[in-house]
Amino acid sequence: MKRPVRLEPGQKLVLTANRLLDGRTVWWCADGAWDLHIGRAALLDADEAEAVLARVAGEAQRDGVVGVYDTAVQAAVPPEPVTVREKIRAHGPTVHPEFAVETEQ
Amino acid sequence: MSIPVGHYQYDRIDRDFLQARIAEFEGQVQRRLDGTLSEDEFKPLRLMNGLYLQLHAYMLRVAIPYGILDSRQLRKLGEIARRYDRDYGHFTTRQNIQFNWIRLEDTPAILRELAEVDMHAIQTSGNCIRNVTADEYAGAAADELVDPRVHAEILRQWSTLHPEFTFLPRKFKIAISGSPNDRVAARFHDIGILARPGEDGAPVFRIFVGGGLGRTPVIGEELFDSVREEHLLATLEAILRVYNAHGRRDNIYKARIKILVQAIGVEAYREAVEAELAQMDLERYRLTPEAVAAIRSRFAVPLLEAPADADAVLAQQRREDPLFDRWVRSNTHVHRDPGHIIATISLKPAGGIPGDATSAQIARLADLADAYSFGEIRITHLQNVVLGHVRKDRLRDLWLGLSEVGLAEANIGLIGDIVACPGLDYCALANARSIPIAQKLGARFADTALQAEIGALRINISGCINACGHHHAGHIGLLGVDKRGEEFFQLTVGGRAENGAAIGTILGAALPEDETVDAIARLVDCYLGRRESGETFLDTLTRLGHEPFREAAYETV
Amino acid sequence: MKLFELGERTAQVHDVLVTLAELAERDDARAVLLESADDPALLKPYLNRLDLVVLRFPIFRDGRGFTQARELREYLRFSGEIRAEGHILPDQAAFLRRCGVDSVVLPKDGNGDPALWEKQLRQFPVAYQRSVLPERSVGPGLRVEEAP
Ligand code: SF4
């Protein structure tokens, strides 16, 4: 079973996955789309996240994404993931600044 | 098409097989896209064909059987990096190459391009028998007894889509060497094989079983001292059969053969294997001299001719050029032919990413291999490149050519020759980033004179307990751990993969990422300050024990 | 239950299918179900009366069934029918056949499409190792194909 999410003050949850076709990291937006930029991700409260996650995960095949899960972010603009792993997923490998997600078209 | 030096030349039958494998994979991709295959079902199937889903994209691991490529194949890898990836590839500790930015939808096309040069990604991952690794100096080293590559190829073929052993409890790695100086870390593999000449001319094989790194590092134990060539495949079948039937499947961390060998003991394992052999129809499994000869005949042997003064020319050039001399000292190895030499090309530029090569560098390496080493290239388990048969009087020209593309780093076996896995910058399983630490250490010890002064010292870095960076086997090992989403590193010292294999000892609590490089610098200073003349890092460590090094590492100024 | 035949042998339907533990008490049983942890050697006393051994795959990644099938054929010389059921994929058709399995219970989802199984069986013209089937060499080296 899923562990209960404990968020620090100022934190929210976002949903993330990888795109099936090209494997790229994507973030779930309020309109149901999946976007390469975490800046467009929907920010969820802990109590609503579980239900949204279950619903969105159920549509993964239709949406062409793999491995949907939630992760904590600082609720800033743009939101910033809490863990190093998710920071790297959001921004790209730290050893290749030229591949940073922000600078891609 | 002429037969390549150093590896097996495919024929039409092999090529048809490869095409069939690609068609099969393409069908699997199609079924994944239309939903017939779930991700849980597709994942093991794609892994068996080398395709991972990593943090940012798919990663394709291409097999380089026994680490040998010809220049045509290497050029193709460069083209794939350019066309389907972001212009670079990463050579791994298992002598393979990985592309980090692959799209699932491009994969069948990439596999077709690879097949044009008889390459593939078969069994570079998955719970099956993985790509077989071999001595990087095979067929060239003066100390070699048997060239292991013919048998490595036999093992590659035998293990390819093996009907019984494709859904093992866990991955299964085999390494083979034919030198008394173990350069394949035979005792850190599920099966390690050391070949030596037998009385009738055919080789005999000493077989170790149950070695491995990962969460529970274990040094492999000798199962058999002298397996005859004709019984090599039968013996391997029996070892695998016992493992497949009895290896644990309830816990991924206890599923490797080493855990089974540890649990029942090597004697019981040997008895079980012998019981299998007693029931098997050995004739059916016999590796015949004809089959070996047929496979051997598809390897070309280099025609080693060098002018009589080749050695003198090299000696003269070394005297005249100290920079070249330093490179020769660290980056070459004795060849069995006195007019030739083995050159190791470092993929560890100071501050660079260990094992990475750009498509331009890859293309240049292919050209240099054509010009200087019969078009043959070897990838080492230390993430470097070897040209196996360079004429001594032409070595300097090779070095100059390497310098032009930033590949003339003189640091093989030295502290700058860092082994690092991709870590958290790419890898979905990682706890910490391996590459930035490697880059910082590389920059810290960039001075090649300082590196030469420090001498033999290997640093290995893994981003998690899976130990792809072989940290347990490093003289200094770093293991990335995650503490509440932050990166920490655990330090080990005293590991070694060579003869007298040993697992490193943990020095103490893991250090935060930003303190790790300084701690290692203090370790090195401790060694430099306390070594006696002629001692390597390992010698001093053995003499003094861990305590002074532990103190140095954890000393806070 | 839809059966698919991997080779020439016609799959048979048995009303009584017992577990390994039940076999000793059921003299009438002609068919036995082996779980993946069961040791096929325990079937030795019963082999003469068995027509069918069913190997159950709890999940397609659990490859013990392949070794069980080979042991039945190679060590125990079992000549009856071997069947695989449970979570198996068409991608495993040739592996199953080469280890001595004659038939499968087709999965109920999309992986149960007989055309997929048929196609996979014919995917590879050669193999690089001997199996339990009658085979002959193809070209020099290790390669074999099924002898007709
Ligand atoms: S050691 Fe861990 S982090 Fe490094 S490549 Fe292997 S699995 Fe990934």
UniProtKB/TrEMBL annotation, chain A:
Organism: Gluconobacter oxydans (strain 621H)
Protein name: DUF2849 domain-containing protein
Domain of life according to the entry: Bacteria
Pfam families: DUF2849
InterPro entries in UniProt: DUF2849
UniProtKB/TrEMBL annotation, chain B:
NAD recorded as keyword: no
Single GO MF annotation: heme binding
Keywords: 4Fe-4S, Heme, Iron, Iron-sulfur, Metal-binding, Oxidoreductase
InterPro entries named among the record's database cross-references: NIR_SIR_4Fe-4S, NiRdtase/SiRdtase_haem-b_fer, Nit/Sulf_reduc_fer-like_dom_sf, NO2/SO3_Rdtase_4Fe4S_dom, NO2/SO3_Rdtase_4Fe4S_sf
EC number: 1.8.7.1
The organism's taxonomic lineage, starting at the top: Bacteria, Pseudomonadati, Pseudomonadota, Alphaproteobacteria, Acetobacterales
Organism whose genome encodes this protein: Gluconobacter oxydans (strain 621H) (Gluconobacter suboxydans)
Name of the protein this chain belongs to: Sulfite reductase (Ferredoxin)
All residue ranges annotated as the Nitrite/sulphite reductase 4Fe-4S domain in the record: 125-278, 418-553
Occurrences of domain Nitrite/Sulfite reductase ferredoxin-like (ranges): 58-117, 353-403
Enzyme class name: oxidoreductase
Top-level taxon of origin: Bacteria
TrEMBL record, chain C:
Record key words, sorted: Oxidoreductase
Pfam families: DUF934
Enzyme class: oxidoreductase
GO molecular function: oxidoreductase activity
Enzyme Commission numbers on file: 1.1.1.-
Protein name: Putative oxidoreductase
